[in-house]
Fold:
Amino acid sequence: MTQINSFMPLDDSTHIGPNCGSCPIRHRAVCARCETDELKALEEIKFYRSFEAGQTLVWSGDRMDFVASVVTGVATLTQVMEDGRTQTVGLLFPSDFVGRPGRAHAPYNVIATTDLMMCCFRKKPFEDLMVHTPHIGQRLLEMTLDELDAAREWMLLLGRKSAREKIASLLAIIARRDASLQGNMRRRELTFDLPLTREAMADYLGLTLETVSRQMSALKRDGIIVLSGKRTVHVPDIDRLVEEAGDDADGGMPG
Structure:
């Protein structure tokens, strides 16, 4: 994989991105509660970076001089064990936050799964802004607690669920995140592009490639999902998919 030094000087094309008022993640990102003057302060310290699928944003152990929000695309968090095996430990969707104020080094590799755009902030100015802008700190706390809830739910998924439930759970998570960003949370019928290959799904869920393919085919055969092309997934009834995941339709899955 190609590494991109995320804190090198940027050329003019790198700065192209949405302004805060028209940003597609405006109401879900770390800036969601910011007032006009607070957004202006963020505008002064932000820049955009774009990455191609497969590129590495940050290596585990690298010094991180920035924090960022995913604007478009999906990235994975991976960790390499001592024997060289790689484990995917998390997914980053649009509006998710990358990096931690007060932490100098990256705990995981961050790799673009799809083409990716990130809204980045130099870390020190961002940390200073948090002191004077309570709305940013409050929102970041909310997002951190949501991330903790999702991690606990994922522990249950990996430890107790069957292979079919694991696949259904992952599809339900991605479907709901996509619906949330599109403003379609009230719809029961959803269509989204799967950001992971089946190999990546197997790695993430602790399954074999053959098991993932078999369970995807079974869900398709049972009418739970409809597959179109290589990555497009249509869910006729999200409640049925959630039931297959072994969770409550009322929100037992992490958002």
In short: Residues 64 and 103 are 8 Å apart (CA to CA). DSSP finds seven helices and eleven strands in the chain. The chain has two domains: 12-147, 161-244.
